[in-house]
Amino acid sequence: MTTDNGPEENAAWLVQLKGGDQAAFSALVRRHHRALVALARAVVGENDAEEMVQQAWLKAYGAIATFEGRASLRTWLSRIVINEGRMWLRKQGREVSLDSLPETVDPLAARFDERGLWSAPPAQWHSDSPDALLMTAQLADCLERLLTGMPGNQRALLEMRDTDGLPFDEICNLLGLSASNARVLLHRARARLFGLVDHYQETGEC
Length: 206
Description:
GO terms for molecular function: DNA binding; sigma factor activity. The protein is mostly helical and 206 residues long. Helices cover 64% and strands 0% of the residues. The protein folds into two domains: 7-91, Rna Polymerase Sigma Factor, Chain: A; 98-203, Orthogonal Bundle (Arc Repressor Mutant, subunit A). The chain is globular.
């Protein structure tokens, strides 16, 4: 039903999906739900994100037959989440601009260049560190807590750019961010992530 690069690349699966096949739609939910919740946090906040995404999935299920493939399924779903999120906020009498969400200055950011890479590698770093560290349950728990506590716009950028590999201009369009602000936010998110790994390697703690 799926390919290594994602179910949306499987033409037969896409036909099943558009035909209302529930197993195909369940596969779509499993692949994208977590990332869409992260995106929703940037729009409606932590408390309402999960419920709002459930509504977005209902909207997507009802509209999937109209999917024309001009954008990826992930982009199509992201647009639904953002539109549903903005409607959610309007119903509650709230408005939010993702481009102006408050951000704190991260002291770790100075340790990384504009690409999000180390300006100077940590003293304890060695060639097999990333793979070895990622095998530890403790570091995985630390990373999960970091992502959970990360501002919604930072996490959404990190997930969409570094995890899903969406084009940068497409992400800016989806989130309603200027390119300059998006670069700053992504840089901060990467700095926090890399900084945690650096700290964990040096201390064994989050």
